[in-house]
Amino acid sequence: MSDFLKANYHAHTYRCLHAVGTEREYIEAAIEMGEETFGFSDHIPCPFHDGYVSNIRMTMQQAPEYVQTLRKLAQEYKDDIRILIGFEAEYIPAFYNEQMQMVRDLGVDYLIMGQHFWTSENIGPYSGSPTKDEERIRLYVDSVIEGMQTGSYTYLAHPDLINYQGMDSVYEFEMERLCRAMLAMDIPLEINLLGQSEKRHYPSDRFFEIASRVGNRVILGQDAHAPEHIKNRAVYEECMDLVQRHSLNLIHELKI
Ligand SMILES: [Zn+2]
Ligand SMILES: [Zn+2]
């Protein structure tokens, strides 16, 4: 296995209620594909204080079991692959301190930021829903920059999740602002393989055109929600075409 991801830091588990398969199946798929590092980054739990129960993420109470299960598997497979344990997290100020305390207590290896919401999911809006509202893209960019300034997140997952369909000039201005801030903080931007395979609005050429011009580093992320997602070579090649098309500065691994 030569031409494929060397490291993937974006994968989920069944605990988020919209991913399938066992952790072992994910790990064995990654080994089969020749990946040397595989990071689980399931959706971070949120400490809701109003009784709300999410149907897209584990609970705070489940997190210790998630980490312990993966620690055991990391040990079991250590001669074949390096397993890392992380979370994909929104930066939401109301949850941030409690989440960071949990991350420290559990000894999690890394966090990636996936800004699906900038307020709680029970308030919304979802970043990926189509909008012509300038305020939304501005708030998305503001919240990503503010979150990244904490230094807690290693990369930005699907930076082009915001689905702004208004004026091109507004999109250009806001996304260039995002890219420049990420460059200044040396934060890589993810090209999301799941979005590509499902023909979502990301990864988008209009975004990576801007990232190319700004000079950001980019990294591929499988965003696996099923073991098959790890073995999709065609989607890897499509994303590598995007890298070529925009002469992007691709990195192959992170220092964790
Ligand atoms: Zn998910
Ligand atoms: Zn994800």
Automatic annotation (TrEMBL):
Query: Which InterPro entries does the annotation name?
Result: Histidinol_P_phosphatase_HisJ (IPR010140), PHP_dom (IPR004013), Pol/histidinol_Pase-like (IPR016195)
Q: Which GO terms describe its biological process?
A: L-histidine biosynthetic process
Principal EC category: hydrolase
Which CDD domains does this chain map to? Answer: PHP_HisPPase_Hisj_like
Which key words tag this protein in UniProt?
A: Amino-acid biosynthesis, Histidine biosynthesis, Hydrolase
GO function terms (MF aspect): histidinol-phosphatase activity
Q: Which domain of life is it from?
A: Bacteria
Query: Keyword Amino-acid biosynthesis on this protein?
Result: yes
Its annotated pathway? Answer: Amino-acid biosynthesis; L-histidine biosynthesis; L-histidine from 5-phospho-alpha-D-ribose 1-diphosphate: step 8/9
Keyword Amino-acid biosynthesis included in the entry's annotation: yes
Q: Where is the PHP domain?
A: 9-192
Cellular component per GO, a single term: cytoplasm
Question: Which reaction equation describes what this protein catalyses?
Answer: L-histidinol phosphate + H2O = L-histidinol + phosphate
Q: What is its EC number?
A: 3.1.3.15
Q: Which family does it belong to?
A: Belongs to the PHP hydrolase family. HisK subfamily.
Name of protein: Histidinol-phosphatase
**What organism, scientifically named, is this protein from?**
Agathobacter ruminis
**According to the entry, what is the taxonomic lineage of the organism?**
Bacteria, Bacillati, Bacillota, Clostridia, Lachnospirales
